[in-house]
Amino acid sequence: MRLPLKFLFFISIIMSLSVKSKVIKFDISSPIAIEFNFHETCMEMGVIHPVLIEIKSPLALDCMGTEVDTTEFCLKKYKNRKDFLRGVVDEERKKVVCQFGKSAILSIGCERKFGKICQSAISGCSTLRNIFATNLQIVHKSLIRRDEQKVLTCYFGPKDQELLKFDL
Description:
Layout: H1 5-19, E1 22-29, E2 32-37, H2 38-44, E3 53-57, E4 60-63, E5 66-69, H3 70-77, E6 84-90, E7 95-100, E8 103-110, H4 121-132, E9 136-146, E10 149-158
Antiparallel strand pairs: 1-8, 2-7, 3-4, 4-5, 6-7, 8-10, 9-10
C-alpha cells in the first residue's frame, strides 16, 4: 500500500527521536511506502505464533521476546530493490513501513547534548545513511553553522545511475 507524503513527513519526525537530533528536512524524490502489519512482520522474520508484539523503538519490534529490526525485515522482503531507504514503525497505525526513493536530502539540527553525530560531515552522514537511506550512497555532505546551531546536511543518491533516468 502506498502512503501519502504527509505520512512520510510524520515518520521523519518520529525518526528524529532515534538519532537524538532534530530533523529539519527529510525530502525523498519519487517516494514509495509499503506497509505491513506487525504480525506479518514477526512471522516473516521467523517468530512462530507472535501473539505478544510490542514496539521497541521507531526501528524495531519486540516479537515474543525476539527483537525484529524493521530495516532487516524490509531488506529481506525487497533485497533486489536499489531504491530502498529504510524500514520504520508507524506506532499510530500499528504497521511496519518500508520506504523507497530515488534520492533523499536530510538536514539535521545538531543539539549540543547530542552533537556527536555532527563532529564530522562524512562520519555523521555515514551513520545517518544506515538509518535513513540504506541502499543509497552519500553524494554530498555539509556541516555548517546556521543561527547559532550546527546543521548537518546529507544528500543520498543511487549507487547505480540507472535510478536517475526519468520516465518520459
